[in-house]
């Protein structure tokens, strides 16, 4: 079919274009291809037919001296598997070096000659014939001058299975006589060392985030160098190794906010939102997971599971509790890509309160996680003197991290009495301690174990590249600040300019996926340093809305801010649909609760009379409950869910009962 379409394309090109590409069929007739020049090369059946039985052809294409040939086969290659063969030789005869033998549906792809000739030999047996091939052959002039070096790129899948990555180069110079040489170095700026034998266009190297590679593209004595790329599946712009601890005056915020359920050894079953973007370890986050064992965990970096040995952080999952090795370590239950405040086996199910809140006003808000009088597992409630009380604080704009500990005791008979405090990287290979690497860390078996206490202590962690203007929250030149928040059911955006020259307008854009943006408003610039505000009253409720500001200059050039998230006006209690419906006996419903509450579930007939009810106390997060209706007569009813905290009816759904 493809060859037929190609035939019509070639035919109409011939009719309507003054000069068509020449067409060559497989035969024993050789071709001298002009340079520059391009032709279409088919099997003997041409663009619309099949080749014949019992063929035995040899055809050589030759280019002028100093040039070479490149042939590109369409993917729709088809010869009888095991019986009909195409051979390609790098030279003027069938005795030249064999490039490859092809049959079935796997074609040659793209082939470039080392000299001025390519020879093709095709044989078919006496039975089945197929569509053959469709190729484009081009004469390429000799390279000259200094070739473009191009950009080195990573060819491997996101998580390479064998610990190696493939590297290639795009945008490099081409032409006959081009040769390649790969080099490696410790940084993107070198120094680089030649890799012996690495002279192909691509290379496979061991995975490493600390080794960089570049390719030299040579045309005679002239060399172009590609950009450098690390042998990693991602790039960390602001690694945890840039963070440093420092003294912070101990100061507790008020114990306020949303209360977590009393559950042990888990990431709580709802992701918590900061209300502002936060930079940690080179990535920007809008929320994360509070761990019941005293940590805040961010989403995992692709290819690096961060819970226990091989799991990616997600709401509601079990975290484990054992501390068998000191940090850093990628293979224990100590969470990675996490703030450890400290990580220890506390047990909220025995008592105490955990909660979170966002305090202050933009752009200087703080997100606070509170652990209040949490008992230690095993030691339980018999030892209130060792209960843990502490706070984790994340600061808007500056991206400063603070850990405040009012009291941290030791339960020596469990988990060897150990705990780990500090920052733990995405891959478990970097640990930023609060003081020395061992003072607030664990010790491996057989010990002696590090059983440490702390009271009224605090530390903060900063990075020179995580502050305002760092790689996580880069603003284009002339923008000084950009932030937003929801106030009185309105999403308010503010941006401040340091300098305005020839700005035509500011465009406010909104997105529901942080990728596809829609214009929602414009602001006329004052062309002097100004603080602007835009109010979005039509935002989408119950999801995150993403915003950016784009400055458009008089010459049409554009500059956009980073993307800023504002959480929608979430309902505190969301009720899912009834299922199944209709029913004979039982139905179920799901609840997503942001607060601890009690609901009244009432079943009413079409006259509004209450015929059945129950009281349900859902946990924080997503829960499910069921209700038996086998005693109800067949008919149509209304299921009404009321929040007992405020008496508000949050859901009314039709229920059909059949017998």
Computed structural class = mainly beta
What's the overall average pLDDT, rounded? 86
* Straight-line N-to-C gap: 57 Å
What is the helical fraction, as a range of percent? under 10%
Number of separate structural domains: 5
Q: Give the strand content.
A: 35-45%
Total beta strands: 46
Instruction: Please tell me what the overall shape is.
Output: globular
Kindly provide the radius of gyration, computed on alpha-carbon positions and rounded to a whole number of angstroms.
34 Å
Major sheet = 7 strands, antiparallel
Label this structure with key terms.
single chain; 659 residues; mainly beta; Jelly Rolls; Immunoglobulin-like; 7-stranded antiparallel β-sheet; 6-stranded antiparallel β-sheet; disordered N terminus
Textual characterization of the structure:
It is a single chain. The protein has 659 residues and is mostly beta strands. It has five domains: 2-140, Jelly Rolls, CATH 2.60.120.290; 151-231, Sandwich (Immunoglobulin-like); 240-462, no CATH class; 479-567, Immunoglobulins (Immunoglobulin-like); 573-657, Sandwich (Immunoglobulin-like), CATH 2.60.40.1930. The protein has one helix and 46 strands. A hairpin with a 2-residue loop joins strand 16 (208-219) and strand 17.
């Amino acid at each position: 079919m493809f060859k037929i379409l190609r035939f019509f394309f070639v035919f109409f090109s011939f009719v309507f274009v003054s000069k068509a590409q020449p067409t060559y069929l497989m035969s024993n007739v050789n071709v001298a291809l002009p340079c520059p020049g391009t032709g279409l090369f088919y099997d003997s059946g041409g663009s619309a037919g099949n080749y014949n039985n019992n063929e035995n052809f040899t055809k050589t294409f030759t280019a002028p001296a100093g040039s070479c040939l490149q042939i590109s086969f369409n993917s729709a290659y088809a010869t009888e598997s095991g019986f009909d063969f195409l051979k390609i030789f790098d030279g003027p005869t069938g005795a030249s070096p064999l490039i490859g033998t092809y049959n079935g549906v796997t074609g040659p792809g793209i082939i470039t000659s080392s000299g001025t000739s390519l020879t093709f030999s095709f044989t078919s047996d006496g039975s089945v014939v197929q569509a053959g091939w469709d190729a484009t052959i081009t004469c390429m002039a000799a390279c000259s001058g200094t070739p473009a070096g191009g950009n080195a790129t990573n060819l491997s899948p996101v998580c390479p299975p064998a610990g190696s990555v493939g590297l290639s180069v795009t945008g490099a110079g081409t032409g006959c006589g081009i040769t390649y040489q790969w080099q490696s170095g410790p940084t993107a700026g070198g120094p680089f060392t030649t890799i012996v034998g690495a002279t192909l266009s691509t290379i496979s190297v061991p995975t490493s985030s600390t080794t960089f590679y570049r390719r030299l593209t040579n045309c005679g004595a002239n060399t172009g160098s590609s950009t450098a790329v690390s042998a990693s599946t991602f790039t960390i712009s602001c690694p945890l190794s840039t963070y440093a601890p420092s003294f912070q005056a101990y100061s507790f915020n008020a114990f306020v906010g949303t209360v977590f359920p009393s559950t042990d050894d888990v990431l709580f079953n709802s992701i918590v939102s900061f209300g502002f973007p936060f930079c940690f370890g080179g990535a920007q986050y809008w929320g994360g997971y509070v761990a019941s064992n005293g940590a805040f965990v961010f989403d995992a970096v692709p290819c690096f599971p961060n819970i226990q040995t091989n799991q990616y952080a997600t709401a509601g999952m079990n975290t484990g509790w054992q501390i068998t090795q000191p940090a850093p370590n990628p293979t224990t239950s100590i969470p990675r890509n996490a703030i450890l405040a400290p990580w220890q086996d506390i047990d909220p199910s025995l008592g105490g309160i955990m909660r979170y809140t966002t305090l202050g006003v933009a752009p200087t808000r703080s997100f606070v996680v509170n652990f209040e009088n949490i008992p230690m597992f095993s030691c339980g409630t018999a030892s209130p003197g060792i209960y843990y009380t502490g706070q984790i604080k994340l600061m808007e704009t500056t991206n400063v991290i603070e850990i405040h500990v009012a009291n941290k005791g030791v339960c020596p008979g469990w988990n060897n009495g150990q705990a780990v405090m500090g920052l733990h990287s995405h891959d478990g290979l970097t640990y930023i301690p609060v003081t020395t690497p061992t003072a607030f860390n664990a010790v491996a078996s057989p010990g002696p174990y590090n059983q440490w206490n702390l009271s009224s202590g605090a530390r903060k962690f900063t990075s020179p590249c995580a502050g305002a203007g760092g790689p996580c929250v880069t603003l284009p030149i002339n923008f000084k600040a950009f932030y937003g928040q929801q106030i009185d059911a309105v999403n308010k955006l503010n941006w401040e300019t340091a300098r305005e020259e020839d700005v035509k307008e500011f465009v406010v854009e909104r997105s529901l996926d942080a990728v596809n943006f829609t214009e929602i408003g414009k602001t006329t610039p004052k062309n002097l340093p100004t603080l602007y505000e835009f109010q979005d009253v039509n935002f989408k409720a119950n999801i995150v809305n993403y915003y950016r500001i784009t400055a458009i200059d008089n010459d049409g050039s554009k500059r956009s801010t980073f993307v800023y998230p504002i959480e929608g006006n979430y309902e505190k209690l969301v009720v899912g649909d009834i299922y199944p419906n209709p029913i004979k006996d039982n139905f179920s419903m799901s609840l997503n609760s942001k607060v601890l509450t009690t609901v009244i579930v009432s079943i009413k007939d079409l006259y509004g009379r209450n015929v059945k009810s129950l009281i349900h106390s859902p946990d924080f997060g997503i829960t499910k409950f069921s209700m038996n209706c086998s005693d109800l007569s067949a008919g149509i009813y209304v299921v009404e869910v009321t929040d007992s905290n405020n008496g508000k009816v949050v859901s009314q759904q039709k229920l059909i009962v059949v017998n």
